[in-house]
Write a structure and sequence with these properties.
alpha/beta; Transcription Regulator spoIIAA; Rossmann fold; 3 domains; seven-stranded mixed β-sheet; five-stranded mixed β-sheet; binds S-adenosyl-L-homocysteine
């Protein structure tokens, strides 16, 4: 018998849980108890004590756990995990068969039925992300499922929860054969160097695949490109291969210089023909405006929150101002690719920031393309916040 404890939903939220809302939070539940044992299975009930759903307790930044099933008879066991992972794998058949792409998301948390768990594929290697200690208690189920269902070179994991200092970050290797990093994966025919054995970030954000392809296929040819918050420079690589006349990558992390050189090199591009600048983006904008430097294509992909020595940035508060800076260094008829992964606001609000930024700059614009998460990043209809990615291609007209 699994120990099950009872969570009572606040009446106001009954309807939404009954229609499949998956996240457990303090606001929606009457009796969340801080410090409940991670991984405890609970039953969610309405005010009459009637069953609504079953899930696990796992504290993470988003809440206190996830509902896993609305079927009172369904057990949360090995077979449950295996069914969910099998269904997810089936939905990625097209990706597994692709000749051009061998890196993608295999399992996307609540979008595939298990909040707090993601699994990514990197050309023979699987990477599991555990977003709470609670979900980590089901590790054996997930590992057994993978052993039964897929072939792999190796499996790596990342614990994305506070391990309380007692845990020394290892390379995350779980089983199979250790990779020789970087491993080179392919996305739409482009090489990407990936490190599964470093911190939380492996060198590429898989959710931008369609955006990279669009830049490569439709926006880069003959253009000068400014890639801000460039990280390892993968947008710059796609732009360059798409025929950009030159790219400029700006990121304040020291590591971004060597990582960006590497991404160019693994694609046979001479990185010396490109600018890779280690600097605060906001400083760089000041410099570019002073020097009257402009670009045909400006990519903005900041983190939701960032603190540097010189500035703090919060997408929800500061995106409009970031756009105003970008507008100043964008050529007439040039394009700004405005991206955010902030779950704090939706596309409607993001378009409002864009509109305000252009109005306050006295510049007209038109929206050329819009993206949210790609198809492998499946989302739950009942949990819209899970579709966090918003990317808008904006053409600047005149000022
Ligand atoms: N656009 C990248 C991902 C960006 S991740 C891609 O698609 O691969 C966010 C990056 O922003 C990190 O590399 C971080 O170092 C950088 N960053 C955060 N604040 C910054 C600032 N003020 N100026 C420049 N870079 C910054």
């Amino acid at each position: 018998m699994q120990t099950e404890y009872i969570l009572k939903v606040k009446p106001k939220y009954e309807k939404s849980y009954k229609s499949g809302f998956p996240l457990i939070s303090k606001e929606t539940i009457q009796n969340i108890q801080e410090g409940t044992k991670e991984g405890t299975i609970f039953q969610l009930v309405d005010k009459k004590g009637q069953f609504i759903g079953k899930g696990y307790y796992g504290k993470q930044n988003k809440g206190y756990g996830w509902i896993l099933t609305q079927n009172v008879n369904e057990k949360i066991d090995q077979s449950f995990f295996e069914r969910k992972i099998q269904t997810a794998l089936d939905k990625r058949k097209g990706f597994f068969n692709s000749k051009e792409t061998n890196t993608f998301r295999v399992f996307n948390a609540e979008g595939d039925g298990i909040g707090g768990l993601t699994i990514d594929y990197f050309n023979g290697y699987f990477l599991i992300n555990w977003y709470s200690e609670g979900i980590f208690t089901f590790k054996d189920y997930v590992m057994d499922s993978l052993r039964h269902l897929v072939e792999y070179e190796g499996i790596y994991e990342k614990k994305r929860f506070d391990v309380g200092g007692k845990y020394i970050e290892e390379d995350g290797f779980v089983e199979g054969t250790r990779g020789t990093f970087p491993i080179i994966v392919k996305e739409n025919g482009v090489n990407i160097a990936v490190y599964l054995n470093e911190g939380a970030m492996v060198g590429v954000f898989l959710d931008q695949r369609d955006v990279r392809k669009t830049i490569h296929d439709q926006y880069a040819k003959g253009k000068t490109v400014l890639n801000t918050f460039s990280y390892t420079g993968v947008f710059s690589v796609f732009a360059s291969l798409g025929g950009a006349s030159k790219t400029t990558s700006v990121d304040l992390a020291n590591r971004s210089l060597s990582k960006t050189m590497e991404q160019f090199s693994v694609n046979g591009i001479d990185y010396e023909a490109h600018d890779i600048i280690v600097e605060d983006v906001f400083q760089y904008f000041k410099y570019a405006v002073k020097k009257k430097k402009t670009f045909d294509l400006v990519i903005l992909d900041p983190p939701s929150f960032a603190r540097s020595k010189k500035s703090t940035f919060s997408a929800a508060k500061d995106y409009k101002n970031l756009l105003k800076e970008a507008i100043q260094v964008t050529e007439k008829d040039g394009v700004i690719v405005a991206s955010t992964n902030s779950a704090a606001f939706n596309m409607k609000k993001f378009r409002m920031f864009i509109d305000q930024a252009f109005k306050e700059s006295n510049v007209t614009y038109s929206i050329r393309d819009e993206f949210s998460l790609p198809s492998d990043f499946r989302t739950s209809k009942q949990y819209k916040e899970g579709n966090y990615l918003k990317v808008v291609f904006i053409q600047k007209h005149y000022d």
